[in-house]
Structure to design on (440 residues):
């Protein structure tokens, strides 16, 4: 394992200077929970780091008409303490399972998304809520749907010199029931072997509308839209959900890695659908 | 060389830091030997300190980040002559064996009790999810935190 020495860290005075530093080849640094690990292990060897974790433009959480705007450098713990989980309870379910208290105090939502890991926990609510990623770079601002932004493991649509500024997270219509199940190899501080998040609009026990997001079963988080469509009108019952487990398994294209083999992920992804039955008791 | 101001265990500090230095190394250089180097990848929690009262991994925090901020290590909570009620509870319940994880455990417990004075055993376990102990099996650590919480509610705290 190659280990690199200390890396120089610059602290830009404003967003414009941050973009200039990143354009010169600096790697953005926010919470450091991934960056310093990868640098230490020699996976990343940036010429220098650009600390953007305290830029005011990246630090705000704002509830607005129709949605929430969350700054890229807002930490997971800050997001948990904010108004956002009260309006969007899926965030509470996900963030409480992310890392551990000290990791949540450091890691940021922007860093989690920029890493573009298929196992990135915050991607699940962002995919479910069809969030947009607001970017700024040398050529100005632009905004991409989260599904257009994440291209594959570690790959995003970020152009040279671009930074994530914030996320626009629209409030869904009505009051969907949130669901999140994360499978790990242990019960503390774990990265998902796979995960399933869902929003359900229920009438009694009938699914009127439904969104699903699968984590860590493909190069990106997956929205299995065909399965979502087939779930509409079904009851939240074993008989109605069980026939779709195989289809949900088929929506995966997983890889084998240190956290589990692909056959396990494929099999387990389908069975996770039955976890939704737990919502009946609630 | 860069000189930074910060507050360490209530004392103002003005120190030189080395390029790329991590908070873990700075604190140990300043004599805070309760801050342990375990994994250096954020997984074990032995290097946990409080930054503005919130737990962070000092191994993944670059030293310059703490400029103008408040850092608390176990040395700031108590000493052998004047132990903190959490330290006393850890000793009384046998929650300390090799002791390597203890500083981190006590600091995350301190953070928990400041937010939640009457935690359930499950909430204590959740608070220490990021701290590995290879000796005790956690049972006595959870007992220690619950005992300290009880005493805190009875007014034994600082």
């Amino acid at each position: 394992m190659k280990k690199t020495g200390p890396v120089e860290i610059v602290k830009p005075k404003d967003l414009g200077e941050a973009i200039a530093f990143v354009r010169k080849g600096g790697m953005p640094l926010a919470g450091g929970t991934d960056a310093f690990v990868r640098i230490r292990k020699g996976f990343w060897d940036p010429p220098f780091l650009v600390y953007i974790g305290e830029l005011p433009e990246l630090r705000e959480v704002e509830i607005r008409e129709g949605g929430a705007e969350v700054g890229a450098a807002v930490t997971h713990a800050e997001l948990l303490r904010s108004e956002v989980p009260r309006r969007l309870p899926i965030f509470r379910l996900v963030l409480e399972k992310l890392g551990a208290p000290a990791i949540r105090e450091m890691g940021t939502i922007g860093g989690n998304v920029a890493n573009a890991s298929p196992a990135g926990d915050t991607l699940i609510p962002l995919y479910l809520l069809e969030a947009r990623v607001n970017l700024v770079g040398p050529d100005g601002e632009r905004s991409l749907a989260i599904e257009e932004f994440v291209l594959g493991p570690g790959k995003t649509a970020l152009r040279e010199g671009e930074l994530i500024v914030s996320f626009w997270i629209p409030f869904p219509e009505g009051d969907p029931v949130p669901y999140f199940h994360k499978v790990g190899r242990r019960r503390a501080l774990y990265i998902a072997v796979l995960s399933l998040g869902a929003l359900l609009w229920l009438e009694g026990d009938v699914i009127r509308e439904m969104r699903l997001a699968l984590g860590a079963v493909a190069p990106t988080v997956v929205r299995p839209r065909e399965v979502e469509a087939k779930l509409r009108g079904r009851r939240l019952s074993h008989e109605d959900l069980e026939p779709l487990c195989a289809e949900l398994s088929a929506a995966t294209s997983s890889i084998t890695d240190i956290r589990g083999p692909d056959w396990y992920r494929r099999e387990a992804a389908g069975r996770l659908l039955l976890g939704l039955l737990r919502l009946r008791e609630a | 060389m860069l000189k930074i101001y910060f507050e360490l265990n209530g004392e103002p500090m003005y120190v030189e830091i080395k390029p790329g230095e991590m908070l873990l190394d700075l604190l140990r250089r300043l004599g805070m030997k309760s801050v342990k180097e375990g994994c250096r990848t954020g997984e074990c929690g032995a290097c946990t300190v409080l930054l503005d009262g919130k737990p962070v991994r000092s191994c993944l925090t670059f030293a310059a980040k703490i400029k103008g901020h408040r850092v608390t290590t176990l040395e700031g909570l108590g000493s052998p002559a004047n132990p903190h009620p959490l330290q006393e509870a850890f000793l009384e319940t046998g929650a300390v064996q090799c002791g390597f994880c203890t500083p981190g455990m006590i600091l995350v417990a301190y953070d928990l009790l400041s937010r939640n004075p009457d935690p359930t055993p499950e909430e204590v376990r959740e608070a220490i999810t990021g701290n590995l102990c290879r000796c005790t099996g956690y049972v006595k650590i959870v007992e220690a935190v619950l005992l300290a919480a009880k005493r805190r509610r009875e007014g034994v705290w600082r």
Q: What stands out?
A: Chain B has two domains: 2-73, 85-153. The helical segments of chain B are 23-29, 85-93, 102-115, 121-127, 139-153. The longest helix of chain B spans residues 139-153. The domain at 2-73 of chain B is CATH 3.10.20.30 (Ubiquitin-like (UB roll)).
